[in-house]
Write a structure and sequence with these properties.
This protein has 331 residues and is an alpha/beta fold. Helices cover 36% and strands 20% of the residues. It folds into two domains: 179 residues, Periplasmic binding protein-like II (D-Maltodextrin-Binding Protein, domain 2), CATH 3.40.190.10; 139 residues, Periplasmic binding protein-like II (D-Maltodextrin-Binding Protein, domain 2, 3-Layer(aba) Sandwich).
């Protein structure tokens, strides 16, 4: 099952539309958007296929829109499959040119890629503030400690009601929404909050569609979910973001606290991984350059999408890495 978005719509309109009828899909479905190149003589032509993270998806869509304005004969198809789903089912088998990810590639994934002759090139493109959200009427909570979050989401504890976590919270059923285990957001939250050596609970509404998390929490006073900051920042009237106390007091998620490092432990880097062999094709190499060069663009990354842009030093580091890979691929 897939959802297609039209080029040229604004980021906010695109995300809002994703929550409309037909966009709420069952867990495990993918979201995709095909960018067909129009008429033009931009000099570049060809097709680029991208899969992976739902968190990086809106940033990739915006980069595609800007790139195609300059190169309309390049067609860029983007699927939101989750970081792990993208690596496993699309990128490592050699079926896509890029995989977006909201956490670093795992060794098992790198090994699978190597078995198929696919060499991923890791490029950091932004920073996210992974955000915990509750219903707007949940006025009994505005901040949680990492231990409270770990109790709620841990597979060993699995409290059924809010009061089982904190006596000051209501004796009401705790209804949870979050990404599937194919998602990099799931992996990051698991490691940062519950702990890599501890199990995550599985009795929650799992989906790769972040708008389904927003809608589920907005319709249930006693619901909770977690997702990338961009999806929250484009829906601040529908759900409430919780502050997180990582041991030094409560800190609310924002671009500023993610950039400063105050929002621990839930600020995280975001990546795209081009396949080195694909970079031998000029249109793929140019899109990768465009993505990295614009990773410092405040208007695109922060204002339109809602993430923290790279600084100049990080951008230059990524460009050096990319240019080396392009040279090796083309040589």
């Amino acid at each position: 099952m897939s959802e297609r978005a039209t080029d040229g719509v604004s980021r906010r309109t695109f995300l809002a539309g994703a929550g409309a009828a037909g966009a709420l899909t069952i867990a495990g479905c993918t979201q995709s958007t095909d960018g067909d190149g129009g008429d033009g003589d931009g000099g570049l032509s060809g097709t680029i296929d991208i899969a992976g993270s739902s968190t990086v998806f809106p940033l990739a869509v915006e980069m595609r829109s800007r790139f195609q304005a300059e190169h309309p004969d390049v067609s860029i198809n983007i699927q939101s499959t989750g970081s792990g789903g993208g690596f496993q089912n699309h990128f490592c088998p050699g079926d896509t040119d890029f995989n977006n990810a909201s956490r670093p590639i795992k060794q098992a994934e790198a090994d699978r890629c190597a078995e198929n002759g696919v060499e991923p090139v890791e490029l950091t493109v932004a920073t996210d503030a992974l955000t915990v959200v509750v219903n707007n009427d949940a006025d009994f909570v505005d901040c949680m400690t990492v231990d409270e979050l770990a109790t709620i989401w841990g597979g060993d504890s699995q409290p059924a009601t809010w009061s089982e976590v904190n006596d000051d919270w209501p004796d009401e059923e705790l209804n949870l929404y979050g990404p599937t285990d194919a998602s990099g957001t799931f992996d990051y939250f698991h490691e940062a909050i519950v702990g890599e050596d501890n199990p995550m609970r599985r009795d929650y509404q799992a989906t790769e569609q972040d708008q389904q998390i927003i809608q589920g929490v907005s319709n249930d006073e006693y619901a909770m979910g977690y997702l990338g900051f961009s999806y929250y920042s484009n829906n601040p009237d529908k759900v409430t973001a919780l502050g997180v106390d990582g041991g030094e007091g409560c800190v609310e998620p924002s671009l500023e606290t993610a950039k400063s490092g105050e929002y621990t432990p839930l600020s995280r880097p975001l990546f795209t991984y081009p396949a080195k062999s694909s970079l031998a094709e000029e249109h793929v190499a140019e899109f990768a350059r465009f993505f990295v060069e614009n990773s410092t663009n405040e208007e695109i990354v922060a204002e339109v999408v809602g993430y923290v842009p790279n600084d100049e030093a990080r951008k230059d580091e990524m460009l050096d890495r990319l240019e080396t890979a392009i040279e090796e691929a083309s040589g």
